[in-house]
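Two proteins were folded this term; both appear here.
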Amino acid sequence: MKDSVILAIILVVQSLCAIFFVFDIVASVLGLRARPISWQIREVIELGAALGLILGVVMGGLALRRSMIRRSMAESKLRRAASAFADVLEERFAEWSLTPAEREVALFLIKGCPIAEIARLRQTSEGTVKAQTNAVYRKAGVHGSSQLLSLFIDDLMDDQLLPVEAGKQVA
């Protein structure tokens, strides 16, 4: 059985257990029980309810553990991706012979910052940032920030997500 089916069954059992315990207390307080059930049946019901609750705690713990492992794996993958992106950035910036100022402007452009914000953050004039932006675009061989970002995404993807045509493999 799949984990989701098992968890659904446990949820149903726990719900029935909770209903039993609440109904039992309410029935005792309000005197709703017309005739008492035998103690053997009561013990079996309580034992089943307790086992259902314990099983739910165990399965919840396992689900939490699995979730924490998945989160850790995702964080690890994200760190590797960030490192790979930084490596690609450095490689391209060196290839294009960007100055330190142009590198900084290129990073802001890749992050999607507008010219005015880049100028404010770098404490320079917008004209200076526009000149540096044009130099970055010229050296990279692109016409805008979306094309600039596209270069790095293409490097990271390495054609892994492109559809394969019938009978052809993507190299």
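Next, the second protein.
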Amino acid sequence: MSPALAETALGLVGVPFRLHGRDPATGLDCVGLVAEALRRAGRQPDPPEGYALRSTSVARFLRCAAASGLTECADGGDVVLCRVGPVQSHLAVRVPGGFVHAHASLGRVTFLPGPLPWPVSLQWRLADEKD
């Protein structure tokens, strides 16, 4: 787990939720959360734009993850893509004791303790960090 990414993600807990949101002042969605956490950790994220809330394709996430300095890994990823519904993917950031994610129903970025309640599709690590 990247301590810098985890710390920046935890600092975003409480930010309002907004679909396609990219600014913490006005709201973030799960993609915006990951992009902002990466930016605050000193990275240059390349988040996807124009995606639908529901979709079965993760192609945009793959391209943007690589362009943002993330490397796919089997487990223990800093950024996790999970399947919250049959046609809905969701990103979360791994932090000590759980995950930070943008929770649409609660209307804000939240900390989710423990393991994710959804199946994990893909995981990425910051390219230059081992653990």
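The longest strand covers residues 88-95. The chain has a mean pLDDT of 89. These notes refer to the second protein only.
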